[in-house]
Amino acid sequence: MSSGGNGGMVEDPLGTATCLKITREVGFDRLLRAEEPDTTATPLPFQADSVRTARDVTRSTLHDWGLSELSDDAALVVSELVTNAVRYARGHREITLLLMRAAPHVLLAVADPSDEVPTPKEPDFISENGRGLYIVETYSECWGWDCLDGGGKAVWALFHTGD
Q: Which domain of life is it from (predicted)?
């Protein structure tokens, strides 16, 4: 249950493997510059407001792509990924939200300057914290992370579009 080289939690159906192969061939560093078609990258500052901005960007991008039916789940997952980046990736650089459409999938990723590997915890439904990656795993087809060339990582989640 690994996404390959850099870890992650993945059930590996053929479509998922294909999408992950695409992202690895292109590389997250290049994707973050939004040089590929059907890709958008949005820089976000290290602040709580970035979570709302990320949700708004995700919803509007999915709407533009004709995938509004994914908006609620994708916005929830993006909220968790950005919250984790703001909370754990202390630093002076911004974080980046990436959305990529590679039919029949949409890849959401949040890049941050931290090299700390995301580690799922057993969900504690009484506590205020600790459910983020559980939510990401529950609402996405799969998730994982990749190291970036200049340091830091991109934590991603994959959604099936039904196309």
A: Bacteria
